[in-house]
Specification:
The chain is mainly α and about 325 residues long. About 55% of the residues lie in helices and about 5% in strands. The protein is built from 12 helices and 3 strands; from the N terminus they run αβββααααααααααα. The model has no long low-confidence stretch (mean pLDDT about 85).
Length: about 325
């Protein structure tokens, strides 16, 4: 009885609703308080008569429109700019993926036709190549915006995750790793704290001592992050780099106590980059260290916390800066 399709609930392209208008105009609609907006037409079956805050984001790319993402809140609390931007790129990523699947099916059917021409196949190939390029760009845009949303939730400033990812890429380049591996390390560094996106903001804003329950939630965020990434196909390859980035060179780290070279190289790179960026960034409880101070501490802990060779590459990178 609660099946939305059986109930015949839907939207018509000409009904003037914010869903259909978002679709028709390829435009976002955000309403701060629906109770004060005469154009908001609530669907009672969906309990929209209780909705206060409303956002509709069109799903489209250069080829065509495929749908709308709708976010509704029963309070007037607005989504942050970071999350709205994340929804925008998610909508484009969905649209591009769906169009790529559709185009792949069309190409497959065309190949099986007896009268298909070389020219037709060349055209389809060009379309597929362009769409795959779009998808790759949007995947990177998605990852970067996801990292911004995590940083905003964690109260990190100045794109902290990007700083770690950029340094991890620099170290990877100095080591001489290939492009695919560098990209995976870059993505993993951006998303190593993704599990925090599921935690309530109040947890990060608490000034009093955290409760045992709060502390357990915070400690468990890497496991939650791995679960999230495993459900996103194109990011599943970064999971090992994230899962083991808190291991220590001497084997006393988490989650499995891996030691030395048994820790994936990408994890060892991210760990060193994260440590350096953490030390050289302002925190609520202390001012940022100088680059020289941070390097000296990391060098002193090489062979215990960090891979000595990766530390040497960091030192090489920072010696002229």
């Amino acid at each position: 009885n609660d099946d939305i399709y059986e109930a015949g609930i839907g939207y018509r392209l000409a009904d003037g609703s914010y869903v259909s208008e978002a679709y028709n105009q390829k435009k976002q609609f955000e309403i701060a308080d629906c109770s004060e907006d005469d154009n908001f037409k609530p669907v009672l079956f969906l309990s929209e008569d209780r909705v206060k805050y409303y956002l509709s984001v069109p799903m489209f790319n250069n080829m065509e429109k495929v749908g709308v993402i709708v976010v509704e809140n029963y309070t007037t609390k607005r989504l942050s700019e970071e999350f709205i931007e994340l929804l925008t790129v998610t909508a484009r990523l969905f649209a591009t993926s769906m169009n790529l699947e559709k185009l792949t099916e069309e190409t497959d059917k065309l190949i099986k036709q007896d009268d298909v021409t070389v020219s037709q196949l060349q055209n389809k190939r060009a379309e597929l190549t362009a769409l795959i390029g779009d998808l790759s760009s949007e995947q990177q845009w998605f990852v970067e915006n996801l990292a911004k949303a995590v940083d905003a939730k964690s109260s990190f400033k100045n794109n902290y995750s990007h700083a770690v990812a950029d340094l991890a890429r620099e170290i990877s380049t100095t080591i001489g790793l290939n492009e695919k591996t560098k990209d995976l390390i870059y993505y993993a560094a951006l998303l190593r704290n993704i599990g925090k996106i599921t935690l309530p903001e109040e947890l990060f804003n608490k000034k009093e001592k955290l409760s045992k329950e709060d502390w357990e939630k915070l400690q468990n965020h890497p496991n939650v992050g791995v679960s999230i990434l495993m459900s996103i196909n194109f990011l599943s390859e970064v999971v090992p780099y994230i899962n083991y980035h808190k291991e220590r060179w001497d084997g006393t780290g988490e989650p499995e106590g891996l030691k030395g070279r048994s820790i994936p190289l990408g994890c060892r790179v991210i760990a060193v980059a994260d440590a350096y960026c953490a030390m050289t960034a302002d925190r609520k409880y202390r001012k940022a260290m100088s680059s020289e101070e941070a390097i000296n501490i990391i060098k002193a802990e090489a062979g215990t916390k960090w891979d000595p060779e990766v530390v040497d590459f960091l030192v090489e990178l920072k010696k002229d800066k």
